[in-house]
Amino acid sequence: MSHTPRSSRTRAVFTCALLVAPLIVGLSGCGGSSSDPLSAKPYDAADQISFSGDDDGHKADPDKPLEVTAKGDDSRITDVTATDAAGRYVRGELTPDGSRWRSTVPLAAGAHYTLKVSTEDSGGAPGRRTIDFTTTGSAHKRLKVTFGPKAGEYGVGQPITAKLSAPVKDPSARAVIERALKVDSQPAVEGVWHWVDNRNLHYRPQDYWPAHATIKVHSNLNGIRIGGGLYGGAAKSLRLTTGDRLEALTDSGTHQMTVRRNGVPIRTIPITTGMPGFDTRNGIKVILAKESSVRMTGASIGLGNSYDLMVYWAARVTWSGEYVHAAPWSTGAQGVANVSHGCTGMSTANAEWFFDTVRLGDIVRVVNSNGDDMTTFDNGYGDWNMAWGNWRQGSALASQRDGADPADSARLRPQV
Predict the structure, then answer these.
(1) For residues 145 and 128, is the Cβ–Cβ distance under 8 A?
(2) Are 93 and 149 members of one domain?
(3) How many folded domains does the chain comprise?
(4) Which positions are catalytic?
(5) I want to staple 313 with a disulfide (CB 3.0 to 4.6 A). Which of 114, 115, 153, 355 is the partner?
(6) 315-365 pLDDT, tens digit each
């Protein structure tokens, strides 16, 4: 009875030995390839390459290409990677014979980089060298960018703004700046920066933002050479969202305001707008502020002491003082005649509803008034009154839009 189990155990051990033996042979075979140069530990290639930067201080000029060159004929460069402190790669080209690598985009100023160089000697043995260096750059010549408006939820008519800390007139410098100012939205829409003047840019799509969109704004300008000794500075990113598409159509001819949400009318309000001589401006305006009460005086529009009163539920649409607000003193004229000094007046109940319904960035469009047209930039956000073709011409990249993608000019590209 005891013989059978012992025999079984013996056969089991013998079988395992047969399985292990080929595995040991296989491992021995791998060890036999140690003579392959590629399996050797890379040697220090410091004596086989030269670096265009200052080897002693590990400094490099951001205005010059970065170069790595193989020394002599007994070695060649096989690979080079250059990354900044955030891990983003700098594009470059290696010559077919491995004699030189050269960056194809300028470096950022005042930035730290890591350069990793792989080489190969005449016998095929691999070498490796890592160089850390910092680019030079004057911190006091940095152009700062401030994005607007403040983070939050806005109406679909809210433009994005960028204010520069110094004026920029040169077209090529403007192009560098514009390429670095990025706006992304979900859902995605095409938009363009427009230079308002030498220090201010506005960004908008062709036909408002989508409802319930997320808009992210950031700058890649930090450290980039702009020109004339000026480099880009850091900028705080911005995130906005949009709500429903809310539009108030103010018809001065019929004395009615129709408020639409996502294209559907939700309220029609009897109104009064500017009387002759104080006609309300025609065109598209954007709500700039909401003030539950505001003091209005005749002196502010050149009428002396003709009136001085508190106005309630006021939504501002121009910086010069045009509002949509409660006007209980003119309820008899609302829906019938235009008797205001330029504002859009309505009953207190309607004004409170309007005030509670709209948000900053919502659209107020005035039609059929005898007033002037809303100006584009100097009295609020009249951006939408400019035709799309004209808006695009205000971009420093207008002449390049049919050519290479501006992203191709980015100095640092993320790893893909």
Answers:
(1) no
(2) no
(3) 3
(4) 325, 343
(5) 355
(6) 999 999 999 999 999 999 999 999 999 999 999 999 999 999 999 999 999
DSSP string, 128-147: EEEEEEEE---GGGEEPEEE
pLDDT of residue 106: 76
Range of the domain at 54: 39-135
Give the distance from CA 69 to its chain's centroid: 37
Say which amino acid occupies 272. Answer: T
CA angle 244-259-280, nearest 5°?
120
- Four-residue CA torsion sign, 49, 54, 58, 59: negative
Do 218 and 331 reside in the same domain of the chain? no
In a domain, 17, yes or no: no
pTM here is 0.70
Q: Are 148 and 240 in contact (CB under 8 A)?
A: no
If one counts every other C-beta atom within 10 angstroms of the C-beta of residue 171, the result is 11
Q: What is the CA radius of gyration of the chain?
A: 34
Cα 8 from Cα 190, distance rounded (Å): 77
- The verdict on 264 and 324 lying in the same domain is yes
> Both 194 and 261 in a single domain?
no
296 and 336 fall within a common domain? yes
